[in-house]
Amino acid sequence: MSCKSKKPPESDPANLTSKTTYRPCPIFTIRPGVNSETLLVHAYETLASANVMATELSSSLTGPTCNLVLGIQQMIVLAQLSVNRVLDQFDPQQ
């Protein structure tokens, strides 16, 4: 089974407004019925791991490449803050 979906040709202006249906790869799916809080906790933990990896990588780089990785790390932190804000709505901290 292929994980690819069909995309309209970029060169055809008539297809630019049509919606393309994307099928997720069946190898990686989320079990139906998993609650939103659980999904958000896993997303937060994944972002935390990515943050550590980006931070470690940046320490071995210099110049523009280091700046690029630090920019990615900052985007990860911003995503973590967003996920954390939503998690706070499930279980407000007192």
Jot down its keywords.
single chain, 94 residues, mainly alpha, 2 helices, 55% helix
Could you characterize what this model shows?
This protein has a domain of 61 residues. The mean pLDDT is 84. The chain contains two helices and no strands. 55% of the residues lie in helices and 0% in strands. The radius of gyration is 19 Å and the shape is extended. The longest helix is centred in the C-terminal third of the chain and has 28 residues. The chain is mostly helical.
Query: How would a textbook summarize the main sheet?
Result: none
- Measured on Cα atoms, how large is the radius of gyration? 19 Å
First-to-last CA distance: 49 Å
Low-confidence stretches: none
Give a short synopsis of this structure:
By secondary structure, the protein is an all-alpha fold. The chain contains two helices and no strands.
